[in-house]
Amino acid sequence: MLTEKQTNLSLDLRRDAWLEIDLNAVRHNLNLVKSWTTSPIMGVVKGDSYGHGADEISRLLLELDINWLSVASAAEALDLRQSLSEANNKKAHILILSPAPESSISTLIENQIDLTVTSKEQIEQIDLISKSLNKSARIHLKMDSGMHRLGARLEDLSSLLDFIKSKSIELISIYSHLAKSHDLATTKFQHENFVSCLHHVKDKIPSGVFTHLANSEATRKFSFSHLDMVRIGLYLYGLEARAKSSDLKPAMALKARITHLTEIKAMEGAGYDWTFVAPKDGLLASIPVGYADGVPRRLSNKMIGYLHGKPIKQAGTISMDQMLFDVTDLADVKTGDIITLLDSNIDELTLAHWAELDQTITYELACALALRLPRIYNNK
Q1: 194-202: long-range contacts at Cβ-Cβ below 8 A with a sequence spacing of 24 or more?
Q2: Which of 51, 91, 109, 338 has the most CB atoms around its CB within 10 Å?
């Protein structure tokens, strides 16, 4: 059954360009991850689930008994809590993976959002606000095991645990983040730093506090990094950072309907700056999707689509809201026909291929496609 979920659009403003999200692919990917670990899984749904729609993905994960969800910001956390509450689903634990602004802490506590802390100052703020609300606050202590982006120094863990013990807040977990999760030596280095530090203060860690370090790639490659929980983001959506996966199933497809057909003469230019010049008399198809929808302008004249089961070349500069395809060599092309831009079953239509052409990673591309494209969910 197909269900519709619009992003920033009401249902009566259907577009002729959309994303299709295959929830069965997400199920497949989750089951694959479960085959690699016995540790509980935290679903990473930040960035609107990497463009796949945090509301729908989170509901699916909860149905599949994944009760820990993590996001990047206070706004993401509150939006998700509201969505899940409207669905009468109270069992989700939602963790913000970075420190929250002081101005949002009271609202987050009232909505039972778990908070990341990296300093005594943040702990003090949260404690004071929770006391003023007469509500319990749940915190997760993030440590810097070598990435040097966010996290308290490992040598400060002992004093931080003492400080937390003196406050009326609840410590839920202690965690860190990997800088090069594809690399054995670097992952071992960070893992040993983190675990050694935990061992030295084990008598100060309250009962029930859990630890986590591994992301998707480390979960697959390095079982020693699993600890008490693993955090799975990109792999849920069937994506590798730069290559097409051999066993994960990408969940996202991108399609658009032809809204206009233009005849073009040999040697005429098309699109901004005439970066496409017709090699012969031909026919161009316009579709209403462009760089404002997250399709990189740098893919101009490089990407392909599929129409009637055959490849067609994108023609000219990708503009904000439109792009062109050369459909000269196809018969019976008409407005309303669907051009597929992304399809996991065709190598040239994968985000991995786009990433190679654009010299970036699939994460960036998937997140960008969430900007204003409506999403249709396949939940057969």
Answers
A1: 194/143, 194/145, 194/154, 195/227, 197/143, 197/145, 197/154, 197/155, 197/157, 198/157, 198/174, 200/158, 201/157, 201/158, 201/161
A2: 51
Q: Side chain identity at 288, as an amino acid letter?
A: P
What residues contact residue 16 under an 8 Å CB cut-off, 6+ apart?
256, 257, 259, 287, 288
Q: Is 135 a catalytic residue?
A: no
How many angstroms separate the CA atoms of 249 and 46, rounded? Answer: 20
Secondary structure letter of residue 318 according to DSSP: -
Active site residue 175: no
Q: How far apart are CA 91 and CA 23, in angstroms?
A: 21
Measured CA to CA in angstroms, residue 258 lies from 255, 262, 325 at distances of: 10, 11, 9
**Spatial distance between the Cα atoms of 5 and 252, rounded to a whole number of angstroms:** 14
pLDDT band at 12 (very low <50, low <70, confident <90, very high): very low
Nearest by Cα to 139 from 151, 122, 154:
122
Cα 292 from Cα 156, distance rounded (Å): 45
The region, left, alpha or beta by phi > 0 then psi within -120 to 50, assigned to residue 51 is: left
Model confidence over 165-215: pLDDT tens digits? 999 999 999 999 999 999 999 999 999 999 999 999 999 999 999 999 999
Q: Are 27 and 64 in contact (CB under 8 A)?
A: yes
Other beta carbons within 10 angstroms of residue 318's beta carbon come to 26
pLDDT bracket for residue 134 (50, 70, 90):
very high
Q: What is the mean pLDDT of residues 55-73?
A: 96
Secondary structure (3-state) at 378: strand
Q: If you average pLDDT over every residue of the chain, what do you get?
A: 94
pLDDT at 91: 83
Q: Which of 5, 272, 302, 313 is catalytic?
A: 272
Instruction: For residue 227, give the DSSP letter.
Output: T
Residues in Cβ contact with 233 at an 8 Å cutoff, skipping those fewer than 6 apart: 43, 44, 45, 46, 50, 215, 216
Q: How far apart are CA 146 and CA 143, in angstroms?
A: 9
**Is residue 121 helix, strand or coil?**
helix
> Does residue 14 surpass a pLDDT of 70?
no
